[in-house]
Design brief:
By secondary structure, the chain is mostly helical. The chain is about 60% helix and about 0% strand. Helix 5 crosses helix 7.
């Protein structure tokens, strides 16, 4: 259950200075905490075993949810076979999977009656300059990796959008764009960076946690992306962990994830530069509106303040 937080900048602390976390941060005095890394190793203090458990449960929930979509569709006469699933059903199944990821993270995060707040999953503001810098640097690093990988390995044709029926109707195109560029970035970042990475870094620190999370992130896409694309996706997952680690906020991760998906979507659909730019800006605008709506609804509440010097960038700068 989401719980409102204390007034901005006022956080209850136990007496005495807490030990450093596995991230190497120590919470600052005066009720402030470093980005994403209080003394317990993560905003939620979740043990590492919850990371794989949440992933497995999320996949199971996705499978069960998919059956809840497919069985009524079959009863209504929709033809679904092992070799062909109608695009509308694929979109519905994928949307259910994304929602299942969020539900799994919330379930394990709340075990034992823990009070949940959105900021524990990284839904909290950060400095705009820091966010832009890390998104740009991570984006450039990913592009460089992608160029090198593409030169060494031939990737098969991406067929995800074909299965979503983007060229069959305008409705399917719009739904596919919303699913790929808005819903997937929000839900996948919530689970992988907001929960799995956060839980794992209390175990062996942020670097191994980022590596494991990146590999798992790439592996989860095995059913929707060509095999040769799984390594770049793992690299993207690793970089997204670093963006979260050094900004203390999930918002830049969601933005970069959406940016990547939007560019890929426009490229596969062979849109013009103007069309691709419109998709990028439109997706980011929708994500911002969703965040604003959640703030207005009281789901996203104020987080403890971030220290001005915490979260020194691995890329350089603060």
């Amino acid at each position: 259950m989401w719980e409102p937080q204390p007034p901005h900048g006022h956080v209850a602390r136990s007496a005495g200075a807490p030990p450093p976390s596995h991230d190497g941060f120590r919470p600052a005095t005066g009720g402030e905490v470093a980005p994403g890394a209080p003394a317990d190793g993560g905003p939620g203090g979740w043990p590492a075993w919850m990371a794989p458990a949440a992933l497995v449960v999320g996949l199971v929930l996705a499978a069960v949810g998919g059956l809840l979509v497919d069985i009524p569709a079959l009863a209504l006469g929709v033809k679904i076979t092992s070799s062909h699933v109608p695009p509308g059903i694929v979109i519905a199944d994928t949307a259910v999977q994304d929602v299942a990821f969020v539900l799994a993270a919330l379930f394990f995060a709340g075990l034992g009656g823990r009070a949940l707040s959105a900021w524990q999953f990284g839904l909290r503001p950060t400095r705009l300059g820091r966010a832009v810098r890390h998104v740009l640097l991570a984006g450039v690093a990913f592009i460089v990796f992608l160029v090198i990988w593409s030169a060494a390995v031939h990737s098969g044709k991406e067929k995800l959008l074909e299965t979503l029926g983007t060229r069959q109707s305008t409705v399917l195109l719009v739904l596919s764009a919303v699913l790929t560029c808005v819903l997937a970035p929000i839900c996948e970042e919530f689970l992988f960076r907001g929960f799995i990475f956060t839980a794992l870094r209390s175990w062996r620190g942020p670097w191994l946690a980022a590596l494991i999370t990146g590999l798992v992130f790439g592996g989860v896409h095995a059913g929707s992306a060509p095999a040769a694309d799984l390594v770049p996706l793992a690299a993207l997952g690793f970089l997204l962990c670093l963006v979260y680690r050094y900004t203390g906020s999930l918002y830049p991760c969601i933005a970069l994830h959406s940016l990547n998906n939007s560019i890929a979507f426009a490229s596969i659909e062979e849109w013009s530069v103007g069309g691709g730019l419109a998709l990028v800006l439109g997706a980011l605008a929708v994500i911002a509106l969703i965040a604003l709506a959640l703030v207005r609804a009281g789901v996203i509440t104020p987080a403890p303040r971030l220290t001005s010097g915490a979260g020194e960038s691995v890329f350089g700068g603060g």
